[in-house]
Amino acid sequence: MYLKTRTVKCPECGAVLHIASTSGITNCQYCHTPILYRLENEPSSFYIRSQIGLKDASRILLKNLRHFLIARDFIQKSRIVSRTLYYVPFLCITGYRCGQHIIKEQDRTTYEVKEDTRVLFSSFRHFRPAVSLTNWGISGTNPDSIIKNGIIPVQLREDITQEDAVYLRPDITINSEEELLRDFATMNKDISTEIIIENRTILYYPIIRVILQYRNNIFHFSIDGVTGEIIYGIAPEAEDNRFIPMALSSIVIAWICGGLFNFIIKGIASGGILGGFFFLPVFLIFILSILFAIYVAWIFYRNYGEIVIRGDKVEINKLNIPETTPIEKLLSPLFKILEQMVLNSRKKYY
Amino acid sequence: MVISLRCKKCKDPLKGERDEYAFFCGSCKSTYILQNDTLKEIETYFFDNDYNMDFLIPLYLFNTNIEYINLESKKQIDLSIKIGNRLQIITRGISIIDPVYFGDIEIETMHRLNNLKTRIKQEKPGDKIFRLDINPQIAMRLLRYNFMKFFDRQADITGMKYSLTIESFSLLFLKTKIDKDKIYISELTKELSRHSILTI
Lengths: 350, 200
Known about the structure:
heterodimer; A: alpha+beta; ten-stranded mixed β-sheet; B: alpha+beta; seven-stranded mixed β-sheet; four-stranded antiparallel β-sheet; globular
Protein backbone atom coordinates (compact mmCIF):
# COMPACT_ATOMS: atom_id res chain seq x y z
CA MET A 1 0.00 0.00 0.00
CA TYR A 2 1.12 3.55 -0.62
CA LEU A 3 1.74 5.64 2.47
CA LYS A 4 1.21 9.28 3.35
CA THR A 5 2.64 10.33 6.67
CA ARG A 6 0.73 13.06 8.48
CA THR A 7 0.20 14.11 12.06
CA VAL A 8 -2.99 14.86 14.01
CA LYS A 9 -3.66 15.81 17.61
CA CYS A 10 -5.73 13.59 19.85
CA PRO A 11 -8.90 15.58 20.72
CA GLU A 12 -8.95 14.02 24.22
CA CYS A 13 -5.34 14.32 25.48
CA GLY A 14 -3.63 16.46 22.81
CA ALA A 15 -0.96 13.88 21.98
CA VAL A 16 0.55 14.05 18.48
CA LEU A 17 -0.31 10.98 16.43
CA HIS A 18 1.28 9.84 13.18
CA ILE A 19 -1.17 8.58 10.59
CA ALA A 20 -0.59 6.82 7.30
CA SER A 21 -3.63 7.91 5.29
CA THR A 22 -5.90 10.87 4.80
CA SER A 23 -8.91 9.28 6.47
CA GLY A 24 -9.38 6.49 8.95
CA ILE A 25 -9.86 5.49 12.54
CA THR A 26 -6.90 5.16 14.86
CA ASN A 27 -6.41 4.69 18.58
CA CYS A 28 -4.48 7.24 20.61
CA GLN A 29 -1.33 5.58 21.93
CA TYR A 30 -1.61 7.46 25.23
CA CYS A 31 -5.28 7.70 26.24
CA HIS A 32 -6.50 4.86 23.92
CA THR A 33 -9.34 6.95 22.55
CA PRO A 34 -10.54 5.87 19.12
CA ILE A 35 -10.15 8.84 16.79
CA LEU A 36 -11.88 9.43 13.48
CA TYR A 37 -9.94 11.66 11.10
CA ARG A 38 -10.91 12.83 7.63
CA LEU A 39 -8.28 15.21 6.37
CA GLU A 40 -9.44 14.95 2.79
CA ASN A 41 -12.69 13.78 1.37
CA GLU A 42 -11.29 10.40 0.53
CA PRO A 43 -13.73 7.84 -0.86
CA SER A 44 -14.02 4.47 0.82
CA SER A 45 -12.16 1.59 -0.77
CA PHE A 46 -13.31 -1.86 -1.77
CA TYR A 47 -11.63 -4.61 -3.69
CA ILE A 48 -12.56 -7.67 -5.66
CA ARG A 49 -10.33 -10.52 -4.66
CA SER A 50 -8.42 -12.13 -7.49
CA GLN A 51 -9.92 -15.47 -8.52
CA ILE A 52 -6.75 -16.46 -10.35
CA GLY A 53 -3.39 -17.32 -8.86
CA LEU A 54 -0.15 -16.17 -10.38
CA LYS A 55 0.67 -19.72 -11.47
CA ASP A 56 -2.62 -19.91 -13.37
CA ALA A 57 -1.46 -16.97 -15.46
CA SER A 58 1.02 -19.20 -17.33
CA ARG A 59 -1.70 -21.73 -18.11
CA ILE A 60 -3.97 -18.96 -19.43
CA LEU A 61 -1.20 -17.62 -21.63
CA LEU A 62 -0.38 -21.08 -23.02
CA LYS A 63 -4.01 -21.61 -23.88
CA ASN A 64 -4.56 -18.27 -25.55
CA LEU A 65 -1.27 -17.72 -27.33
CA ARG A 66 -1.70 -20.77 -29.55
CA HIS A 67 -2.98 -18.84 -32.50
CA PHE A 68 -2.13 -18.96 -36.19
CA LEU A 69 -1.22 -15.28 -36.29
CA ILE A 70 1.29 -15.59 -33.45
CA ALA A 71 4.84 -16.86 -33.96
CA ARG A 72 4.76 -20.63 -33.63
CA ASP A 73 7.75 -20.88 -31.33
CA PHE A 74 6.62 -18.02 -29.07
CA ILE A 75 5.36 -20.34 -26.32
CA GLN A 76 8.37 -22.67 -26.45
CA LYS A 77 11.09 -20.09 -26.65
CA SER A 78 9.72 -17.31 -24.47
CA ARG A 79 10.74 -16.97 -20.82
CA ILE A 80 8.60 -15.55 -18.01
CA VAL A 81 10.41 -12.51 -16.64
CA SER A 82 7.82 -11.60 -14.01
CA ARG A 83 4.24 -12.23 -12.88
CA THR A 84 2.65 -9.61 -10.65
CA LEU A 85 -0.81 -9.19 -9.24
CA TYR A 86 -1.89 -5.54 -9.40
CA TYR A 87 -4.99 -4.03 -7.88
CA VAL A 88 -6.03 -1.27 -10.24
CA PRO A 89 -8.26 1.47 -8.76
CA PHE A 90 -11.55 2.32 -10.42
CA LEU A 91 -13.64 5.24 -9.27
CA CYS A 92 -17.27 4.22 -8.77
CA ILE A 93 -19.78 7.06 -8.62
CA THR A 94 -23.44 6.48 -7.86
CA GLY A 95 -26.01 9.18 -8.06
CA TYR A 96 -29.10 10.59 -9.65
CA ARG A 97 -30.04 12.81 -12.50
CA CYS A 98 -32.86 15.02 -11.33
CA GLY A 99 -34.79 17.87 -12.84
CA GLN A 100 -38.12 19.45 -13.56
CA HIS A 101 -40.99 17.21 -14.40
CA ILE A 102 -41.78 17.35 -18.10
CA ILE A 103 -44.76 16.29 -20.14
CA LYS A 104 -43.99 15.09 -23.61
CA GLU A 105 -46.46 16.29 -26.21
CA GLN A 106 -47.92 13.90 -28.74
CA ASP A 107 -45.79 15.20 -31.59
CA ARG A 108 -42.71 14.33 -29.49
CA THR A 109 -40.99 17.57 -30.38
CA THR A 110 -42.28 19.93 -27.70
CA TYR A 111 -42.19 19.66 -23.95
CA GLU A 112 -44.24 21.27 -21.26
CA VAL A 113 -42.26 21.85 -18.10
CA LYS A 114 -44.19 21.53 -14.88
CA GLU A 115 -43.47 24.49 -12.73
CA ASP A 116 -41.92 23.89 -9.32
CA THR A 117 -41.66 20.18 -9.75
CA ARG A 118 -38.60 18.10 -9.27
CA VAL A 119 -38.27 14.44 -10.03
CA LEU A 120 -35.60 11.83 -10.25
CA PHE A 121 -35.09 11.09 -13.94
CA SER A 122 -32.70 8.26 -13.58
CA SER A 123 -29.91 6.88 -11.52
CA PHE A 124 -26.43 6.00 -12.57
CA ARG A 125 -23.52 3.95 -11.43
CA HIS A 126 -20.44 4.89 -13.26
CA PHE A 127 -17.07 3.15 -13.20
CA ARG A 128 -13.96 4.71 -14.63
CA PRO A 129 -10.30 3.93 -14.13
CA ALA A 130 -8.85 6.13 -11.39
CA VAL A 131 -5.40 5.78 -12.82
CA SER A 132 -4.07 6.20 -16.32
CA LEU A 133 -2.17 3.16 -17.61
CA THR A 134 -1.04 2.82 -21.18
CA ASN A 135 -1.30 -0.57 -22.86
CA TRP A 136 -2.91 -2.30 -19.89
CA GLY A 137 -6.32 -2.70 -21.48
CA ILE A 138 -8.14 -1.46 -18.37
CA SER A 139 -10.57 0.58 -20.45
CA GLY A 140 -12.02 -2.73 -21.61
CA THR A 141 -12.50 -3.94 -18.04
CA ASN A 142 -15.99 -3.53 -16.66
CA PRO A 143 -16.26 -4.06 -12.89
CA ASP A 144 -19.98 -3.26 -13.13
CA SER A 145 -20.78 -6.45 -15.05
CA ILE A 146 -18.62 -8.45 -12.63
CA ILE A 147 -20.63 -7.14 -9.67
CA LYS A 148 -23.90 -7.79 -11.49
CA ASN A 149 -22.77 -11.38 -11.96
CA GLY A 150 -22.68 -11.77 -8.21
CA ILE A 151 -19.06 -11.07 -7.26
CA ILE A 152 -19.33 -9.00 -4.11
CA PRO A 153 -16.60 -6.45 -3.38
CA VAL A 154 -15.03 -6.51 0.06
CA GLN A 155 -14.11 -3.44 2.06
CA LEU A 156 -10.39 -2.80 1.81
CA ARG A 157 -8.51 -2.68 5.07
CA GLU A 158 -4.81 -2.38 5.40
CA ASP A 159 -4.65 -5.36 7.76
CA ILE A 160 -6.26 -7.78 5.29
CA THR A 161 -4.64 -6.70 2.02
CA GLN A 162 -2.59 -9.23 0.10
CA GLU A 163 1.06 -8.58 0.78
CA ASP A 164 2.25 -10.02 -2.53
CA ALA A 165 0.00 -7.72 -4.55
CA VAL A 166 0.67 -4.18 -5.70
CA TYR A 167 -2.09 -1.64 -5.00
CA LEU A 168 -1.86 1.20 -7.49
CA ARG A 169 -2.48 4.62 -6.10
CA PRO A 170 -5.58 6.41 -7.45
CA ASP A 171 -4.82 9.49 -9.48
CA ILE A 172 -6.59 12.22 -7.52
CA THR A 173 -6.30 14.75 -10.34
CA ILE A 174 -9.20 13.10 -12.16
CA ASN A 175 -12.19 15.36 -11.65
CA SER A 176 -14.91 12.92 -12.37
CA GLU A 177 -17.72 14.99 -10.96
CA GLU A 178 -17.27 17.70 -13.58
CA GLU A 179 -17.02 15.12 -16.33
CA LEU A 180 -20.20 13.45 -15.12
CA LEU A 181 -22.04 16.75 -15.09
CA ARG A 182 -20.95 17.27 -18.66
CA ASP A 183 -21.97 13.75 -19.69
CA PHE A 184 -25.30 13.45 -17.99
CA ALA A 185 -26.72 16.91 -17.44
CA THR A 186 -27.42 17.75 -21.05
CA MET A 187 -30.52 15.66 -21.65
CA ASN A 188 -32.58 18.61 -22.86
CA LYS A 189 -31.35 22.16 -23.02
CA ASP A 190 -34.74 23.56 -22.04
CA ILE A 191 -34.93 21.59 -18.83
CA SER A 192 -32.74 22.35 -15.87
CA THR A 193 -31.06 19.17 -14.71
CA GLU A 194 -29.27 18.54 -11.46
CA ILE A 195 -26.80 15.79 -10.76
CA ILE A 196 -26.73 14.52 -7.20
CA ILE A 197 -23.71 12.42 -6.43
CA GLU A 198 -24.79 9.88 -3.85
CA ASN A 199 -21.49 8.25 -3.13
CA ARG A 200 -17.97 7.81 -4.40
CA THR A 201 -15.98 4.68 -3.79
CA ILE A 202 -12.71 3.30 -5.03
CA LEU A 203 -12.88 -0.27 -6.26
CA TYR A 204 -9.59 -2.09 -6.64
CA TYR A 205 -9.80 -4.57 -9.49
CA PRO A 206 -7.28 -7.43 -9.87
CA ILE A 207 -5.14 -7.53 -12.98
CA ILE A 208 -2.19 -9.89 -13.42
CA ARG A 209 0.66 -8.53 -15.49
CA VAL A 210 2.95 -11.09 -17.08
CA ILE A 211 6.17 -10.09 -18.82
CA LEU A 212 7.66 -12.52 -21.32
CA GLN A 213 11.03 -12.38 -23.02
CA TYR A 214 11.26 -13.73 -26.56
CA ARG A 215 14.36 -13.31 -28.78
CA ASN A 216 15.62 -10.37 -26.71
CA ASN A 217 12.26 -8.59 -26.92
CA ILE A 218 9.89 -7.98 -24.01
CA PHE A 219 6.16 -8.63 -24.31
CA HIS A 220 3.57 -7.51 -21.72
CA PHE A 221 0.26 -9.21 -21.03
CA SER A 222 -2.62 -8.13 -18.78
CA ILE A 223 -4.89 -10.88 -17.47
CA ASP A 224 -8.23 -10.10 -15.85
CA GLY A 225 -7.92 -11.43 -12.28
CA VAL A 226 -11.61 -12.35 -12.13
CA THR A 227 -12.50 -13.73 -15.56
CA GLY A 228 -9.05 -14.99 -16.53
CA GLU A 229 -9.21 -13.35 -19.94
CA ILE A 230 -6.21 -11.72 -21.55
CA ILE A 231 -7.44 -8.15 -21.66
CA TYR A 232 -4.40 -6.79 -23.41
CA GLY A 233 -1.20 -8.24 -24.76
CA ILE A 234 1.21 -8.01 -27.63
CA ALA A 235 2.80 -11.03 -29.23
CA PRO A 236 5.20 -11.40 -32.18
CA GLU A 237 3.67 -12.05 -35.56
CA ALA A 238 4.23 -15.39 -37.26
CA GLU A 239 6.95 -14.90 -39.85
CA ASP A 240 5.13 -16.90 -42.50
CA ASN A 241 2.47 -14.20 -42.47
CA ARG A 242 4.85 -12.32 -44.72
CA PHE A 243 6.59 -15.31 -46.25
CA ILE A 244 3.54 -16.75 -48.05
CA PRO A 245 2.48 -13.53 -49.85
CA MET A 246 6.11 -12.96 -50.84
CA ALA A 247 6.43 -16.52 -52.13
CA LEU A 248 3.21 -16.06 -54.13
CA SER A 249 4.56 -12.83 -55.59
CA SER A 250 7.79 -14.58 -56.57
CA ILE A 251 5.82 -17.26 -58.40
CA VAL A 252 3.87 -14.59 -60.27
CA ILE A 253 7.11 -12.79 -61.20
CA ALA A 254 8.70 -16.03 -62.42
CA TRP A 255 5.61 -16.88 -64.44
CA ILE A 256 5.45 -13.45 -66.08
CA CYS A 257 9.19 -13.48 -66.81
CA GLY A 258 9.10 -16.92 -68.39
CA GLY A 259 5.97 -16.25 -70.43
CA LEU A 260 7.09 -12.90 -71.81
CA PHE A 261 10.62 -14.03 -72.60
CA ASN A 262 9.17 -16.93 -74.49
CA PHE A 263 6.83 -14.60 -76.39
CA ILE A 264 9.57 -12.10 -77.28
CA ILE A 265 12.05 -14.72 -78.40
CA LYS A 266 9.42 -16.45 -80.51
CA GLY A 267 8.45 -13.08 -82.05
CA ILE A 268 12.03 -12.15 -82.91
CA ALA A 269 12.86 -15.60 -84.24
CA SER A 270 9.74 -15.94 -86.41
CA GLY A 271 9.04 -12.42 -87.66
CA GLY A 272 12.29 -10.52 -87.91
CA ILE A 273 11.05 -7.00 -88.68
CA LEU A 274 7.66 -7.73 -87.13
CA GLY A 275 9.40 -9.03 -84.02
CA GLY A 276 11.58 -5.92 -83.82
CA PHE A 277 8.50 -3.73 -84.22
CA PHE A 278 6.80 -5.43 -81.27
CA PHE A 279 9.92 -5.80 -79.17
CA LEU A 280 9.97 -2.35 -77.51
CA PRO A 281 6.35 -2.16 -76.24
CA VAL A 282 6.37 -5.82 -75.19
CA PHE A 283 9.65 -5.29 -73.38
CA LEU A 284 8.16 -2.27 -71.58
CA ILE A 285 5.11 -4.31 -70.51
CA PHE A 286 7.47 -7.03 -69.33
CA ILE A 287 9.51 -4.58 -67.19
CA LEU A 288 6.36 -2.97 -65.76
CA SER A 289 4.92 -6.37 -64.86
CA ILE A 290 8.10 -7.33 -63.00
CA LEU A 291 8.13 -3.99 -61.17
CA PHE A 292 4.48 -4.44 -60.22
CA ALA A 293 5.11 -7.92 -58.82
CA ILE A 294 8.14 -6.64 -56.88
CA TYR A 295 5.99 -3.77 -55.60
CA VAL A 296 3.33 -6.20 -54.32
CA ALA A 297 5.99 -8.27 -52.57
CA TRP A 298 7.52 -5.16 -51.05
CA ILE A 299 4.15 -3.99 -49.69
CA PHE A 300 3.68 -7.32 -47.94
CA TYR A 301 7.20 -7.21 -46.61
CA ARG A 302 7.12 -3.73 -45.18
CA ASN A 303 3.71 -4.27 -43.52
CA TYR A 304 5.20 -6.30 -40.72
CA GLY A 305 3.28 -6.13 -37.48
CA GLU A 306 2.65 -7.37 -33.99
CA ILE A 307 -0.30 -9.29 -32.67
CA VAL A 308 -2.59 -7.44 -30.28
CA ILE A 309 -4.80 -9.54 -28.06
CA ARG A 310 -7.89 -8.04 -26.40
CA GLY A 311 -10.16 -10.65 -24.86
CA ASP A 312 -11.27 -12.98 -27.64
CA LYS A 313 -10.01 -10.67 -30.36
CA VAL A 314 -6.61 -11.40 -31.86
CA GLU A 315 -5.61 -8.99 -34.58
CA ILE A 316 -2.53 -7.74 -36.36
CA ASN A 317 -1.40 -4.27 -35.48
CA LYS A 318 0.63 -3.13 -38.49
CA LEU A 319 3.76 -1.23 -37.63
CA ASN A 320 5.58 1.42 -39.62
CA ILE A 321 2.87 1.69 -42.23
CA PRO A 322 3.71 4.51 -44.63
CA GLU A 323 1.01 6.73 -46.09
CA THR A 324 -1.24 4.93 -48.52
CA THR A 325 -0.32 5.64 -52.11
CA PRO A 326 -2.96 6.00 -54.86
CA ILE A 327 -1.86 2.68 -56.33
CA GLU A 328 -2.37 0.99 -52.96
CA LYS A 329 -5.81 2.49 -52.67
CA LEU A 330 -6.63 1.17 -56.13
CA LEU A 331 -5.35 -2.28 -55.32
CA SER A 332 -6.61 -2.51 -51.75
CA PRO A 333 -9.56 -4.83 -52.61
CA LEU A 334 -7.12 -7.19 -54.29
CA PHE A 335 -4.82 -7.13 -51.26
CA LYS A 336 -7.73 -7.88 -48.95
CA ILE A 337 -8.76 -10.87 -51.05
CA LEU A 338 -5.17 -12.12 -51.08
CA GLU A 339 -4.79 -11.69 -47.32
CA GLN A 340 -8.10 -13.42 -46.68
CA MET A 341 -7.10 -16.32 -48.91
CA VAL A 342 -3.84 -16.73 -47.05
CA LEU A 343 -5.54 -16.53 -43.65
CA ASN A 344 -8.27 -19.00 -44.63
CA SER A 345 -5.77 -21.50 -45.96
CA ARG A 346 -3.71 -21.29 -42.76
CA LYS A 347 -6.65 -21.50 -40.39
CA LYS A 348 -7.11 -25.11 -41.48
CA TYR A 349 -3.95 -26.10 -39.65
CA TYR A 350 -5.24 -24.82 -36.30
CA MET B 1 -11.70 16.93 10.79
CA VAL B 2 -10.48 15.00 13.84
CA ILE B 3 -13.03 13.80 16.40
CA SER B 4 -13.08 11.49 19.36
CA LEU B 5 -15.15 8.34 18.95
CA ARG B 6 -16.30 7.95 22.54
CA CYS B 7 -19.90 7.71 23.68
CA LYS B 8 -20.99 10.95 25.33
CA LYS B 9 -23.02 9.00 27.88
CA CYS B 10 -20.91 6.04 28.93
CA LYS B 11 -17.51 6.99 27.40
CA ASP B 12 -17.19 3.62 25.69
CA PRO B 13 -15.59 3.45 22.23
CA LEU B 14 -18.04 3.84 19.35
CA LYS B 15 -18.28 1.33 16.50
CA GLY B 16 -18.14 2.40 12.90
CA GLU B 17 -15.98 2.68 9.81
CA ARG B 18 -14.02 5.65 8.55
CA ASP B 19 -16.44 6.37 5.68
CA GLU B 20 -19.63 6.05 7.68
CA TYR B 21 -21.85 8.76 9.11
CA ALA B 22 -23.41 6.78 11.97
CA PHE B 23 -21.51 5.51 14.99
CA PHE B 24 -22.89 3.14 17.55
CA CYS B 25 -22.15 2.53 21.22
CA GLY B 26 -21.95 -1.17 21.93
CA SER B 27 -22.52 -0.56 25.63
CA CYS B 28 -25.52 1.79 25.94
CA LYS B 29 -26.65 1.25 22.29
CA SER B 30 -26.78 4.98 21.56
CA THR B 31 -26.46 5.98 17.92
CA TYR B 32 -24.57 9.10 16.86
CA ILE B 33 -24.63 10.83 13.52
CA LEU B 34 -21.76 12.79 12.05
CA GLN B 35 -23.04 16.13 10.85
CA ASN B 36 -21.02 19.29 10.29
CA ASP B 37 -17.92 17.59 11.71
CA THR B 38 -19.55 16.85 15.09
CA LEU B 39 -21.21 13.80 16.55
CA LYS B 40 -24.84 14.22 17.60
CA GLU B 41 -27.00 11.59 19.21
CA ILE B 42 -29.87 10.62 16.97
CA GLU B 43 -33.16 8.86 17.64
CA THR B 44 -33.67 5.52 15.96
CA TYR B 45 -36.95 3.88 14.95
CA PHE B 46 -38.14 0.52 13.75
CA PHE B 47 -41.39 -0.64 12.24
CA ASP B 48 -43.56 -2.27 14.83
CA ASN B 49 -43.48 -5.75 13.35
CA ASP B 50 -40.64 -7.90 14.47
CA TYR B 51 -38.73 -10.40 12.38
CA ASN B 52 -35.43 -12.14 12.72
CA MET B 53 -32.90 -10.12 10.84
CA ASP B 54 -29.43 -10.34 9.33
CA PHE B 55 -28.75 -6.67 8.97
CA LEU B 56 -30.52 -3.32 8.94
CA ILE B 57 -31.05 -0.86 6.10
CA PRO B 58 -30.94 2.66 7.55
CA LEU B 59 -33.18 5.38 6.18
CA TYR B 60 -33.18 9.06 7.05
CA LEU B 61 -36.56 10.00 8.46
CA PHE B 62 -37.26 13.72 8.13
CA ASN B 63 -40.11 15.43 9.94
CA THR B 64 -41.04 18.28 7.67
CA ASN B 65 -43.39 21.22 7.71
CA ILE B 66 -45.05 22.20 4.44
CA GLU B 67 -46.70 25.47 3.56
CA TYR B 68 -48.75 25.57 0.38
CA ILE B 69 -48.39 28.87 -1.42
CA ASN B 70 -50.46 28.58 -4.54
CA LEU B 71 -53.36 26.15 -4.77
CA GLU B 72 -55.09 26.56 -8.11
CA SER B 73 -57.35 23.58 -8.65
CA LYS B 74 -59.78 21.78 -6.38
CA LYS B 75 -57.65 18.68 -6.80
CA GLN B 76 -54.67 20.46 -5.34
CA ILE B 77 -56.68 21.82 -2.44
CA ASP B 78 -58.05 18.37 -1.68
CA LEU B 79 -54.56 16.94 -1.80
CA SER B 80 -53.12 19.57 0.51
CA ILE B 81 -55.87 18.86 3.03
CA LYS B 82 -55.29 15.13 2.71
CA ILE B 83 -51.56 15.40 3.25
CA GLY B 84 -51.67 18.20 5.76
CA ASN B 85 -48.86 20.43 6.82
CA ARG B 86 -46.71 17.79 8.36
CA LEU B 87 -45.09 15.04 6.36
CA GLN B 88 -42.53 12.39 7.17
CA ILE B 89 -40.16 12.02 4.28
CA ILE B 90 -37.78 9.12 3.77
CA THR B 91 -34.45 9.11 2.01
CA ARG B 92 -31.92 6.33 1.95
CA GLY B 93 -28.92 6.14 4.22
CA ILE B 94 -27.00 3.43 2.42
CA SER B 95 -25.63 3.39 -1.11
CA ILE B 96 -27.77 1.21 -3.31
CA ILE B 97 -26.47 0.03 -6.63
CA ASP B 98 -29.92 -0.11 -8.18
CA PRO B 99 -31.18 3.28 -6.98
CA VAL B 100 -34.39 3.52 -9.02
CA TYR B 101 -35.86 0.30 -7.70
CA PHE B 102 -34.95 1.29 -4.18
CA GLY B 103 -36.63 4.66 -4.83
CA ASP B 104 -39.92 2.78 -5.09
CA ILE B 105 -39.20 1.16 -1.74
CA GLU B 106 -38.64 4.60 -0.22
CA ILE B 107 -41.90 5.94 -1.60
CA GLU B 108 -43.82 2.89 -0.42
CA THR B 109 -42.29 3.32 3.05
CA MET B 110 -43.41 6.96 3.02
CA HIS B 111 -46.94 5.92 2.11
CA ARG B 112 -47.10 3.40 4.91
CA LEU B 113 -45.70 5.87 7.36
CA ASN B 114 -47.85 8.85 6.50
CA ASN B 115 -51.06 6.90 6.00
CA LEU B 116 -50.45 5.20 9.35
CA LYS B 117 -50.66 1.78 7.74
CA THR B 118 -47.73 0.74 9.88
CA ARG B 119 -46.63 2.22 13.16
CA ILE B 120 -43.06 2.84 14.08
CA LYS B 121 -41.56 2.55 17.53
CA GLN B 122 -38.55 4.22 19.01
CA GLU B 123 -35.95 1.56 19.67
CA LYS B 124 -32.20 1.24 19.76
CA PRO B 125 -30.53 -1.21 17.43
CA GLY B 126 -29.40 -4.27 19.34
CA ASP B 127 -26.02 -4.33 17.67
CA LYS B 128 -24.09 -2.54 14.96
CA ILE B 129 -25.47 -4.43 12.00
CA PHE B 130 -26.08 -1.45 9.76
CA ARG B 131 -24.04 0.93 7.71
CA LEU B 132 -24.91 4.56 7.05
CA ASP B 133 -22.66 5.86 4.32
CA ILE B 134 -24.72 8.68 2.83
CA ASN B 135 -23.93 12.13 4.09
CA PRO B 136 -26.91 13.84 5.81
CA GLN B 137 -26.41 16.81 3.46
CA ILE B 138 -26.90 14.57 0.41
CA ALA B 139 -29.96 13.04 2.07
CA MET B 140 -31.42 16.53 2.47
CA ARG B 141 -30.92 17.21 -1.23
CA LEU B 142 -32.65 13.95 -2.12
CA LEU B 143 -35.50 14.77 0.23
CA ARG B 144 -37.01 17.38 -2.12
CA TYR B 145 -37.10 14.88 -4.97
CA ASN B 146 -38.69 12.18 -2.87
CA PHE B 147 -41.23 14.71 -1.64
CA MET B 148 -42.18 15.60 -5.21
CA LYS B 149 -42.27 11.96 -6.24
CA PHE B 150 -44.56 11.16 -3.35
CA PHE B 151 -46.77 14.11 -4.21
CA ASP B 152 -46.84 13.53 -7.93
CA ARG B 153 -48.18 10.02 -7.57
CA GLN B 154 -51.29 11.31 -5.90
CA ALA B 155 -52.36 14.29 -7.98
CA ASP B 156 -51.45 16.74 -10.66
CA ILE B 157 -49.31 19.36 -8.98
CA THR B 158 -48.63 21.65 -11.92
CA GLY B 159 -48.15 25.19 -10.76
CA MET B 160 -48.38 24.32 -7.10
CA LYS B 161 -45.89 26.20 -4.97
CA TYR B 162 -44.81 25.20 -1.53
CA SER B 163 -42.26 25.87 1.12
CA LEU B 164 -40.68 22.92 2.89
CA THR B 165 -38.76 23.12 6.15
CA ILE B 166 -37.06 20.32 8.04
CA GLU B 167 -38.00 20.28 11.71
CA SER B 168 -35.95 17.29 12.80
CA PHE B 169 -34.55 14.07 11.49
CA SER B 170 -33.87 10.61 12.83
CA LEU B 171 -33.03 7.14 11.54
CA LEU B 172 -35.57 4.51 10.57
CA PHE B 173 -34.32 0.96 10.12
CA LEU B 174 -35.69 -1.67 7.78
CA LYS B 175 -35.05 -5.21 8.90
CA THR B 176 -33.71 -7.56 6.29
CA LYS B 177 -32.85 -11.18 5.83
CA ILE B 178 -30.31 -12.58 3.42
CA ASP B 179 -31.13 -15.78 1.64
CA LYS B 180 -28.62 -16.89 -1.01
CA ASP B 181 -28.45 -14.01 -3.50
CA LYS B 182 -31.49 -12.12 -2.26
CA ILE B 183 -32.06 -9.58 0.46
CA TYR B 184 -35.59 -9.68 1.81
CA ILE B 185 -36.94 -6.53 3.40
CA SER B 186 -39.25 -8.05 5.92
CA GLU B 187 -41.46 -5.07 6.58
CA LEU B 188 -42.34 -4.43 2.95
CA THR B 189 -42.09 -7.99 1.63
CA LYS B 190 -39.75 -6.59 -1.03
CA GLU B 191 -36.55 -8.10 -2.22
CA LEU B 192 -33.27 -6.79 -3.54
CA SER B 193 -30.48 -8.70 -5.16
CA ARG B 194 -27.60 -9.18 -2.78
CA HIS B 195 -25.09 -7.28 -4.89
CA SER B 196 -27.35 -4.21 -4.93
CA ILE B 197 -25.74 -3.18 -1.66
CA LEU B 198 -22.04 -2.85 -2.16
CA THR B 199 -21.02 -3.11 1.43
CA ILE B 200 -22.37 -6.37 2.79
